[in-house]
Structures are given as C-alpha cells and as structure tokens.
Amino acid sequence: MPHINPYLTFDGLTEEAFNFYKSALGVEFAVFQRFGDAPSENKMPESEAKRIMHVALPIGNNAVLMGSDTSPHYGHQVTMGNNFSISLSADSKEEAKKIFDALSDGGTITMPLDDTFWGAYFGMFTDRFGINWMVNYDYPKTSS
Fold first, then answer.
1. 87, 97, 81, 73 alpha-carbon torsion, rounded to 10°
2. From CA 9, how far away is CA 77, in angstroms rounded?
3. Phi and psi (nearest 5°) for 21?
4. 74 in helix, strand or coil?
5. Helix H segments across 26-144?
6. Reported pTM
7. Helix, strand, coil in percent for the chain, rounding step 5
8. Which is it for the CA torsion 65, 5, 104, 94, positive or negative?
9. In b/e form, how buried is each residue of 1-25, taking b as 16+ CB within 10 angstroms?
10. What gap in Å lies between CA 59 and CA 42, rounded to an integer?
C-alpha cells in the first residue's frame, strides 16, 4: 500500500534541521548525502559542496522524513509557508508528550497538547525551522 514520505526543502539549513529531528525523535539517518558526494560529472560548485543533496530519516512504520537543501547554482529558492504539516501518530499519551516537547523546543506552539473532543490527545506547533507539526495519540475506542 502506498505511504506518504514528507519531503522538506531548506536553504542551507537541512543538516541543522535534520540533526534536530534525529535527536528529538531518537532515530538514525537511512541516507545522508552532500552535493559534494556526487560523481564528478554531477558536482556542484565548491560553495555548495557541503549542502545536503538528500537525507532520509525513518520514522515509525514505513514512513520516512526526507529533505534537501536548495541549490543557488541552479537558481532554486525556498519560500517559507504554511501549506503543509507533518502529522505524527504516537503509540501512547506519554510518547505523544515526549515527541511534542522535543520537536516544539524553540518553536511556537499553536495548539497545546491536550485531550480533544474527538477522542485524542493532540497538539500543533511550528518548529524552530518554520515547519508545521501535528502530534496525535488516539485513545482506544470503547464499545457502547
């Protein structure tokens, strides 16, 4: 079955952002490549060699958070916006709180983590890199 892998693009902040995500989520990179690692026929200018060409951070069941830096050499630019969020589903209320607290550190909480009317423990924030996140734990359904 298809699954979603969010892909984030930064202007030179990918390494910092993904090291933060790696630390906050307690996972390891599956892929970490710099533009300077590319074969010689695909090399970028030396000024861009340390930028991140591709990074992949496995999260949960079959989900991978991916990202890269823009390439000023090719005229790429990033426009910060609020047209997407990354939604993480936790396996417990405690895990939801741990994830929320870690990732929201240095960011702006837009909806504090709390019980909701739809039977979940849920919160939203924008992290210190301008990425919108939602953290959710669905309480077990009770039969009536």
1. -90
2. 9
3. -60, -40
4. helix
5. 93-104
6. 0.75
7. 25, 35, 40
8. negative
9. eeeeeeebbbeebbbebbebbbebb
10. 30
Order of strands across the sheet that contains 31-34: 7-10, 63-69, 52-59, 31-34
At residue 16, the 3 state secondary structure works out as: helix
Token pair belonging to 82: 């609020």
Which structure tokens are listed for 41?
A: 């026929």
Would you state the structure tokens that stand for residue 108, as one six-digit string? 């702006």
Q: How far apart are CA 82 and CA 92, in angstroms?
A: 27
Residues of the chain with pLDDT under 50: none
How high is the pLDDT of residue 80? 61
**6 neighbors 84 (Cβ within 8 angstroms):** yes
